[in-house]
Design brief:
8-stranded antiparallel beta barrel
Amino acid sequence: MKRQILLSFFALAFVTLFTACGGTTTVSPIPSLVVGKWTVTKAYYGNEESSADMYKGYEINFTNTNTYSVENPTGAPSLSLSPLNSGVYEIDAFNNNQLTFDKGTTTSSKHSIIIVNNTKMVTETYVTLPGKLRTLYRFELARK
C-alpha cells in the first residue's frame, strides 16, 4: 500500500512538472507597468529628502524593447549610473521586484521596485560612496 501511494505521488509530480513546463511562459505584468515616461517626485538619501527643485526636468523613459533614456538637466543623482544617460534595463523574470540597469557593465545598478502601478513607482537601492557608510537611495516616480 505504501509503495502504491509513493508511486502515485511520483506519477502526479511527473505529470505536473511536464504540464507546467509546456508551451507558454506566464510573466508578471510588472514589466509592462514600467514601460513609459516617469518623473521623480521625491528622492531620499538615507534620512534626507532631496530639495524640491533638484529633479526639475528629470525624466526617465522605459521602452517595451528594454531600453531606457534619461533627461537630467540639473545633474541630480540618477536611477541609472550610465554617463550616456541611456542603455538597457532588465526586470528579473523570477523576481519581478528587481530592476537592473546596464547588467554586466561597470555602471550596472540594481533597484528594488517597492510599488508599481499605472501612476506610481517607488525604487530603492543601496549606494556606498567613498568615505561614507552604505546609504539607502529611494526614488518616488510618477508617470508623465
